[in-house]
Description:
Elements lengths: L4 E6 L27 H7 L11 E5 H11 L6 E5 L4 H10 L7 E6 L3 E2 L2 H16 L3 E7 L9 E7 L5 E7 L4 H10 L2 E11 H11 L1 H12 L2 E3 L2 E3 L2 H5 L6 H6 L5 E6 L3 E2 L4 H7 L8 E4 L3 E4 L2 E7 L4 E4 L2 E8 L2 E6 L10 H4 L2
Amino acid sequence: xxxxxxxxxxxxxxxRLWPRSRVVRPKPFLPLVGENSLFEAALARCPVSGGFAAPxxxxxxxxxxxxEAQLGEGGGAQVIVEPSARNTAAAIALAACRLPEEAxxxxxxxxxxxxxxxxxxxxxxxxxxxxxxxxxxxLGIAATAPETGFGYLKRGEAISQTGFxxxxxVEKPDLERAKAFLAEGIYDWNGGIFAFRVKDFLAxxxxxxPQIAAGVAEAVAxxxxxxxxxxxxxxxxxxxxxxxxxxxVMENTARAALVPVDMGWSDIGNWHALHAALQRDESGNSMxxxxxxxxxxxxxxxxxSDGPRVSVIGLEDVIVVVDGDDIxxxxxxxxxxxxxxxxxxxx
Length: 347
């Protein structure tokens, strides 16, 4: 196997983008920025012509139909179908156990937006080069605002022209601390994009979370292939502890590194983040609609409608979403509460 192996993680329900994102068709499979879905865009960023191997997609039963519909021919892609959700450490380990030990994985969430694919590819190659030297590498996303909703990575000593040791992993800070990070200029956002050599990742996972490593290995050994699909053994996988790759491996290993990159990244984690990723007019307004939208004396308003006419007058910093029979209206300050609405929670 040659080339960097993209490992695309497809999980979650994206309830913070309700009512557009739903359990039956969650965020990764929606065309939120541009004509392609976020999942299709993630695949397109890792072409064979750019030095990438065929991808491995790790997903669950609920997302499988969407994955296969948008994967198309897939170019030799493998789809690992998780029998249950066990967080990112186990999901990545599933892919690792299906690859040669010298292979370099590039782990990517399926539901993020990256505006500059060329810069992403350069950073991915730099991260892969470090991974080949035994480093476990994060892409450090350029922090452009004092965000309190992201974890941060502190740059340590330089280990290459583009890479640094990760001096510290920082959990989501309060606003004052986030402002201090931005001012200091050596803190990047942790966007959940990683490069690992298979044998190094599995060794660190075995060292720090042996139950996860052993449980996943057993589930893969007892699993079965069905064409391009691979099904880990459900009983074995159900016993695997649930933990994120950050807590299980990255915050424990002595070989953590990062490659800083400014590539127009967004996790599209809520309606405000989506609005920021879209083109806006001179008043900061955006609209995504198959029907008529009229805005009068509005500033920083997003209207996302699947058809009905929407008219908005005199509002500022507001999101209006129409999806079938559901209408959701929120201020920008309220976007984090969307996932707690009864319509989002009781699907």
